[in-house]
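Hey Z.,

So I finally got round to the tryptophan thing we talked about over coffee. Here's the setup:
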Amino acid sequence: MSDPINASFRPRIFSGIQPSGGLTLGNYLGALKRFAALQGGEAETIYCIVDLHAITVWQDPDALRNRIREAAAAFMAAGVDPARSVLFNQSQVSAHAEMAWLFNTVARVGWMYRMTQFKDKAGKNTENVSLGLLAYPALMAADILTYQATAVPVGEDQKQHLELTRDIAAKFNHDYKVNHFPIPEPLIEGVATRVMSLRDGSRKMSKSDPSDASRINLTDDADTIAQKIRKARTDADPLPGQMDGLKDRPEARNLVNIYAALADQTPDQVLARFEGQGFASFKPALAEIAVQVLSPITRRMSEYMADPAQIDRILADGAERADAIARPILERTKDIMGLLKTRT
Ligand code: AMP
Ligand code: TRP
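And the result:
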């Protein structure tokens, strides 16, 4: 972080995932796997199940409770270690919601209407969606800045929200003439920053896609994974020797990228091995590596899910540690804005 504004801040990584549905291979490759890999470096790692974001669209309460625990199980099964990272669910640390309100007064309404995720989710229904759906990015900025986080690992789709977070931090620092918030850096790296749908190479693989065949869920068993890959949309041409040759073949490119991310190789290394072969031989190889990587994760997830009380204890412990970092930063923010100190 060479930015002089950030030099005075301690390196801290923050990221979050919504418990709005079962997690997918896209969440694993674009987020969870990288969250785990960032542990033990120079920066402290803080990972959050963002349940307050999930309720910006309707969630059945019983299903939500289960999904919060399932997301916690997925984080841990993917290698996020609650002893080395702070792992918790957002609604247990009230500083997020309080900071979000402060940021609602900093952010401008026009910034919110410009967000592509808002436009996609609201569609033609902009007057009828929840106010929370519109204000969502201010809460996301609060998540990040309440910890004065300096870096945020996310998939490509979150880039615009991260820019808005940077805008809020910069406007706050400017308006109040302080150097209180770092300008967080997005970490969007690797070949799997945008895993696409298995049915349509122009759409992101998403937990909210109505077609289950479009995605691989972290709870899918080996047969289901193999079947979804077998049925994945592709074309009839053989694979070229290099990625340039896949420019106009989005579905093929997606499958090669997925293979590369699962195997920790570059896409060109994958193509060097499969050059000249068609999908009849590539798909079974992809299914094999997908099952090899995902089965242990699925198994560990169900082991964690067998003991929900233990998950709740882990999240409560994480929330306590998160609160200890967040509370003084929130208090300082209020003080800068001219609000009186919270009684102690
Ligand atoms: P969400 O599921 O929207 O809460 O996203 C949680 C994290 O997973 C974010 O960092 C997303 O950018 C990332 N993510 C979600 N879907 C994908 C995907 N298809 N490819 C890569 N990253 C993804
Ligand atoms: N908006 C993110 C998503 O939908 C989730 C999220 C909420 C997040 N708060 C965050 C990601 C803070 C990174 C940092 O994927």
